[in-house]
Design brief:
This protein is an alpha/beta fold. The chain has a single domain, classed as Vaccinia Virus protein VP39 (Rossmann fold), CATH 3.40.50.150. It contains twelve helices and twelve strands. The strands form two sheets. A seven-stranded mixed beta sheet has the order 7-6-5-8-9-12-11, with helices on both faces. Strand 5, helix 4 and strand 6 form a beta-alpha-beta unit. Helix 7 runs antiparallel to helix 8. The protein is globular, with a radius of gyration of 20 Å. The chain starts with a strand and ends with a helix. 39% of the residues are buried. The chain binds zinc ion.
Length: 329
């Protein structure tokens, strides 16, 4: 195990050191930093973070991003819309066991599938996204979606009952300030739901093991197999996915910014409530087998998705002072 000094401290627990995993190699073979793992909370990250300005992000999350993304976020697919709406409805029914209905914010709302489901269930639903393309789609559907930062929203501090971050946190380099802003908008006792890919799933463990064994059996292909295998395993695609979280790293991050975790579940991809899959392109035999493995992982509580429900608790004054909202809000 090789311990290295990292360019940025761990985004979850602020550890200064990291375990070196491997160089980050893009599909075209270009080197683009390193993959590191936190020795304290096991967060897997790109190091250093890609330097991105807000304007660059419009180019990343444009129409092509949403149309190429054949999964649950795809825009303009009526079958996907119907399946997603039903899944969001099931999720909301679960979250309503933990929080009263009121104002809901979907942070990273894309084209507003969750907003639509929330509206239909009687929530006062707002959405925020950095993609002007996605927000325009949501607005065209008559939803209250905004492009920009949290302070652009017409929502008072301390007024929000529920915030959803569905497959968003893995895109954010440093999420500490983002989560503090979200905490500020939430009522005390309000609920934050974070959904992301699970760094400790059964599918990942099996996938990595199979690729490693294949690389040993077919020596000439060994290096390439191992490189591709680890790349797939960690699911890091900068500048889009820059972290892969697990339970420990999410708990470390949320506890630092005024939240108490109240429920964790790890379903598989394709779960009818979380991360439904939309019928579409044909999958390879290997991918079909891995989906079965993930389905088993979901039953065992180690599926490919991790969902954390966290309650906003009273913040230590230092956390408020850090952000500078105590006197100038
Ligand atoms: Zn850490």
């Amino acid at each position: 195990m090789r311990i290295v000094e990292r360019k940025q401290p761990c985004a979850a627990c602020e550890a200064e050191q990291a375990v070196y995993v491997k160089p980050l190699v893009e599909k075209d073979g270009a080197g683009n930093g390193h993959i590191v793992r936190c020795p304290k909370c096991a967060l897997v990250s790109v190091d250093p973070m890609p330097p991105l300005e807000a304007n660059d992000l419009q180019d990343v999350y444009d129409e092509a991003y949403y149309s190429e993304y054949g999964g649950f976020q795809c825009i303009g697919n009526p079958v996907a819309d119907r399946i997603m709406l039903a899944a969001c409805d099931r999720q909301l029914a679960m979250f309503e066991q933990y929080v009263d209905k009121g104002i809901m914010l979907d942070f990273g709302c894309a084209d507003g599938k969750f907003l639509k489901a929330a509206q239909l269930r009687g929530w006062d639903a707002y959405g925020l996204d950095i993609s002007s393309y996605a927000v325009d789609c949501a607005k065209a559907a008559g939803l209250k979606a905004f492009c920009g930062i949290i302070d652009d929203l017409p929502i008072e501090d301390g007024s929000v009952n529920l915030v959803i971050m569905s497959h968003v946190i893995e895109h954010i380099g440093d999420s500490t300030d983002v989560l503090r802003d979200i905490r500020r908008k939430l009522k005390e006792g309000g609920l934050l739901v974070v959904e992301t890919e699970n760094s400790r799933s059964l599918r990942r463990a099996i996938e990595l093991a199979v690729i490693w064994i294949a690389s040993q059996l077919v020596k000439p292909l060994g290096t390439r197999f191992r490189t591709r295998g680890k790349q797939r395993y960690h699911r890091l695609h900068p500048p889009v996915h820059v972290h892969t979280y697990g339970r420990k790293s999410l708990e470390a991050l949320l506890s630092r910014v005024g939240f108490e975790v109240v429920h964790v579940t790890c379903p598989g991809m394709g779960n009818p409530c979380f991360c439904v899959t939309v019928p579409g392109k044909r999958k390879s035999l290997f991918e079909n087998v891995l989906q079965r493995v993930d389905s088993l992982g979901g039953h065992l509580g180690i599926g490919e998705v991790i969902v954390v429900l966290a309650r906003a608790i009273e913040q230590p004054s230092s956390a408020v002072l850090d952000k500078g909202h105590s006197s100038d809000a």
